Structure formats: structure tokens, C-alpha cells
Amino acid sequence: MHSRRDFIKTTGLLTGATMITGSSDLIAKASSEWAGKGKMQLSYKAYTLNLRHAFNLATSSRTTTPVVLTQLSYNGVTGYGEASMPPYLGESHETVLRFLSKVDLSAFEDPFQMEKILDYVDGIEEGNKAAKASVDIALHDLIGKIIKQPWYKIWGYDATNTPNTSFTIGIDTPEVVRKKVKEADPYKILKVKLGRDTDKQMIETIREMTDKPLCVDINQGWTDRQMALDMAHWLKEKGIVFLEQPMPKERIDDNAWLTENSPLPTIGDEAVQRLDDVLKAYKVYNGINIKLMKCTGMREAHKMLTLGRALDMKIMIGCMTETSCAISAAAQLSPMTDWADLDGALLISNDVYKGTTVVDGKVTLSSKPGIGVEKI
To answer: For residue 140, what are the CA distances in angstroms to 25, 115, 181?
Structure first.
């Protein structure tokens, strides 16, 4: 580990990744025109997302997801943000609302001081990553609207280079799995939740209906590395593309051993929360899954992507169960990723925004400024 860290330091990759935030010329010009023209006002409200199907993972099941929707206004312009709190993250309506009540942006008269503002928000308390992401997303949306550019353009990304998004098939009975596969017909790649004793049944059931590429998300559900390797070989024969978080994140040596011997690439998810975790994941996994709700938002997600690319790791942009607000924010990064799992808004029945869409299975970015969303 020390040799890897020394390598990163000597090449300057870590420093470089933490410095990149967007187009400095655009930011500087707009800042000179807009600074001191008002005070930023943060508002927020609790909301509950209803899932179209029960969401069954290796260790849990749920039919709703709590979220908090935020708005950040400055001089007549409003940016939208969101915190999504699946139970395993340890956040809730109560914790997010409590954290946001402590956010006081009155000292910042220039919304373009993004690093200072988000450093302040991050420093209020440890944790609270989804709550912090809700402010980060709203700030990015606000700035993009002021500049009148979407963030993929501010970052210099090609909107035509977006990947297909996977569509998630949760653990369920064969009958329900078949129904979900039919519903997923428009999508080019499926993501299958595994990690129970029905893993082979899940894959065989899906393979009865489609030969589409599949990726599998084990959610730390495998505990024996030889069994995991045997499954990797079996899954390779079934047309699986990669393994996401196959073993518990604490099992670093086992995950590294599996990565070294597996015929399929491995992707760290629960093991990769924030920027520092990218280095820790290097050579333990082949790639990383970046989620805004784990890393505090778009600013840090962009840094993680930059560092991961510098380390020649595969990059996946993922999501929780979210509205089109947070999905559209994450989608701004998608042109630079290998894979996208941005189906969170497709799994709910009560979205309140429209933005990024899926056309013929492909993530399709809006040309609207900021994160590209509007209220329904």
C-alpha cells in the first residue's frame, strides 16, 4: 500500500484530482458579474419515493425511500438538489433535516466560491453525506443556470458519448423476475441483484428470457472467496459483464485475491465512498462505482472520476433510488464513464422532476443549464 501511495504522490495524481472543479474562465467571468448581488437562501422539504416493485437486496427489502428535496436561490435564480437515504447509509429524514438546519450560507456573497462553500458544508459535521450532496447538487444547478450552461459542457464532456444505463432486477421469485425482465425490454443491459442462495436461479430465470448483457451486484453477499471465484467462472459463461462488490468491503485481501483471479472485472461499491477510498480500492478492485449520495455530491464525484481515470481504473456512475433531480446531476459525469447505472428514477412512481432521459437504453442528457431539470 505504501508503494502505491508513494507512486500517486510522485506523479501528482491525487493533487491534480483534488484541484479540478470545472471551467475556471467561465467561473471567473460570471463571478465578477454576480458576486455581491444577494444572499444565498437554502430551503428544503421531506419527501418519500414510492417504488414500483419491492427492492430486494442480499440483506434487505423495502418499498419506499425517504428523500429530502432542496432549493438554493440567489438573485432570482434557483438550483435544485436532493438527498436520498436508503437505510444502509444511516441517514433519514430526521438526520438530513437536522443537518440542513445548521447550514448557514449568509457569509458567502459569491455563489461561485464553490470550493469554500462546499468545504464549509462538509466541515459542519462528519458523515451526513446525502445531506451534503443535496446542497452540492443545488449549488451546481444554481451555478450552471447562472452561466447558462449544463455541467457536462462546463466540464468539457461530449453529450453524445454517454453509455447505456443498466436497469436493475432485484432479488425475487422467478415469476416476479420474469415480469421485471419484460418491463426492462427497452434497456440494453440489465443489472441483477445477487447475494443469496438463489443466485443461480436468478440468472437462469433471466437467461430463459433474454441474452442481453448482464452485470451483477452482490452487495457484499458472498463470504467465501473460493465460492466467489467459482461463481465468477460460472457467471462468465452466462454472459455477465462484471461483478459489483462481491464480498464484504472489510475483506480487503479476499476481494483483492478475487480480482486477481476472476475472469470478470470487479467493481468496488460499498468499499468506495469518498475520494480517499479510490486509492484504497486501487488493485483491490478493477473499478469503482461513484454515487453522489456516498461522496457528498458532484464536486467530489468529479474528483473521484479524475483520479480513477488517472489510475486506469474502470468507472461506473451509479445511483440510489432517486428522483430525476439527483439522476440528472450524476448523469453530467456519464460521458466519461465506462458504465452507468442511472435507473433510480425509473424505479419510482412519483417523480417530481424531469431531466435526463433514457432513449433506446442510452443515457440522454438535457441541454438545459445546470443539471438539466425542471419541476413537473
So the answer is: 16, 11, 35
Asked which of 25-29, 245-249, 269-273 is least confident by mean pLDDT, the reply is 25-29
Which residues lie below 8 Å from residue 32, measured CB to CB, with a gap of 6+? Answer: none
The reported pLDDT for the residue numbered 32 is 73
Strand order in the sheet with 77-84: 41-56, 61-74, 77-84
DSSP SS3 for 257: helix
Tens digits of residue pLDDT in 257-297: 999 999 999 999 999 999 999 999 999 999 999 999 999 99
> The cell 508503494 sits on which residue?
3
Read off the C-alpha cell for 101: 438546519
Distance CA 34, CA 188 (A): 44
Q: How far is CA 227 from the centre of its chain?
A: 29
pLDDT digits (tens, 9 = 90+) for 142-154: 999 999 999 999 9
The C-alpha atoms of residue 124 and residue 167 are separated, in whole angstroms, by 36
User: Amino acid identity, residue 77?
Assistant: V
Beta bridge partners of 339: 316
Q: Three-class SS of residue 149?
A: coil
Please tell me which residue, 150 or 25, carries the higher pLDDT value: 150
Residue 361 near residue 187, CB atoms below 8 Å:
yes
Secondary structure letter of residue 164 according to DSSP: B
